[in-house]
Design goal:
160 residues; alpha/beta; two-stranded antiparallel sheet; 7 strands; globular
């Protein structure tokens, strides 16, 4: 047991390298620079993107070191991170969540399904891609996108 503790103390904290700050994709809403409160919405995904989002906010990639934080209420959010196609059952809850998020807000579509319906393009229960239901500011391509892609998109909003 002491060997593991010594190794942990010797090694220290291990995280992915941050790289340089990306250029701003959009103009950040007032008060968002350096800090971004995010409400995640699963509009009908296969949960692949959710696994990568949890990886992005986990201890290795640690998105919180760049000022991005997940919040439980849309009323506390600056941004909405939407995953999956918008199903017919999730269209109204998504619209209600967008309406409950204060202006100015950023809507981020995460994953190929959210951007262009992906493999669910012709499914009977699909209403459409996220941008067919609500305006989207940033898109993160990939099936699923990597944690580093997700963090790069979040950093483009915060400017960190």
């Amino acid at each position: 047991m002491w060997g593991w503790i010594r190794k942990a103390v010797r090694t220290g904290r291990v995280v992915e390298p941050a790289g340089g700050a990306p250029g701003a994709v959009i103009e950040s809403p007032a008060g968002v620079a350096g800090s971004l409160q995010i409400r995640h919405i699963d509009a009908g995904s296969c949960n692949g993107c959710e696994v990568e989002i949890s990886g992005a906010f986990g201890p290795v990639y640690d998105a919180e070191r760049f000022g991005a934080r997940l919040v439980a209420s849309p009323r506390h959010a600056d941004a909405l991170l939407v995953t999956g196609v918008v199903t017919r059952n999730m269209e109204e809850p998504l619209l209600n969540t967008v309406a409950a998020t204060p202006q100015p807000r950023v809507v981020i579509a995460c994953g190929d399904c959210a951007l262009n319906r992906g493999v669910f393009a012709e499914a009977y229960g699909v209403r459409g891609a996220v941008n067919e239901v609500v305006p989207v500011d940033i898109g993160i391509p990939g099936c699923p996108p990597t944690p580093s892609d997700i963090i790069a998109a979040l950093r483009s909003v915060t400017g960190t």
